[in-house]
């Protein structure tokens, strides 16, 4: 045997050791050789992702990253430089989330704003929402968010000089003329024959009561929440002091007054970021003198106790809600109001709740209103 033949025999006839070809004795391997397994592994490359998805990701990723950075920059700019725009943006987002659709109405040469949720049904009483002094339709956001748009319909109006509603020089600002203006807005919106459940809080409750007294053919139901009233037996000095307190609590002129006002209007502290409070104050300051003059006008005896004066004309089924810890309109007036109104069907005093029921306890507020509506509906069809 020559050297070449000896080498081929030692290498298994293929130039490789036999142990690498067949695993070899004692090697613990069987089947394909190491080289075959390596070639198999190299040939089975992982499946590449779809080229369409890869291209979409390459396009979407920088766009999403750019939008995120843009939102962060704009948010920081609003937070530190323009709290007024920040407040208005948050108010708009909350109003949209609640499902309210705002629109403007031209009436007597003046622009007014209303908001709506759901669709009106002539066989079902709609809700007419009237806000309080220095507020707007956004104050109903938490309440309206609980309304099922498929089953209920609500219409929220902004009083003249509030929110997006302007106030003309010919406007009358006693509570009865304000109720007539609300009626004009309801008719302009196309709901002059729609039965209404009129709901108002604070000064809006007084306007709601005047509406029910003036238009009993439309006001099927009435809910007054913490109406702004004064003690009929109070002295002139006490009323003057109360008006001074209400001016700073309902129409604050500074950041410190605003923080104090929130503490007095709510029994439980309502957490609001400082920059949002600053934006809220900047939004209200241009109308500060108007709001304070309106409060002084509405605080006169003929206006502030309008629910007592027009009690005999209010024939709608009436619901009274009051916060037990209300510091602006004392809960002791609830009993007097209940005795005066001829058709009080439900009266609720909420414990651990202040003046701003719609902000502090909207779920309880809505639950009581819904219970009242349900009971009156059952009575109507029984």
UniProtKB/TrEMBL annotation:
Major enzyme class: hydrolase
Membrane topology classification: Single-pass type II membrane protein
Name recorded for this polypeptide: acylglycerol lipase
Major localization listed first in the record, in broad terms: membrane
Localization, UniProt: Late endosome membrane; Lysosome membrane; Mitochondrion membrane
Entry's EC annotation: 3.1.1.23
Pfam families to which the protein is assigned, alphabetical: Abhydrolase_6
General function of this protein: Lipase that preferentially hydrolysis medium-chain saturated monoacylglycerols including 2-arachidonoylglycerol. Through 2-arachidonoylglycerol degradation may regulate endocannabinoid signaling pathways. Also has a lysophosphatidyl lipase activity with a preference for lysophosphatidylglycerol among other lysophospholipids. Also able to degrade bis(monoacylglycero)phosphate (BMP) and constitutes the major enzyme for BMP catabolism.
SUPFAM superfamilies recorded: alpha/beta-Hydrolases
Taxonomic superkingdom: Eukaryota
GO cellular component: late endosome membrane; lysosomal membrane; mitochondrial membrane
Catalyzed reactions: 1-dodecanoylglycerol + H2O = dodecanoate + glycerol + H(+); Hydrolyzes glycerol monoesters of long-chain fatty acids
GO MF annotation terms: monoacylglycerol lipase activity
InterPro entries tied to this protein: AB_hydrolase_1 (IPR000073), AB_hydrolase_fold (IPR029058), AB_hydrolase_sf (IPR050266)
Gene Ontology BP annotations: acylglycerol catabolic process
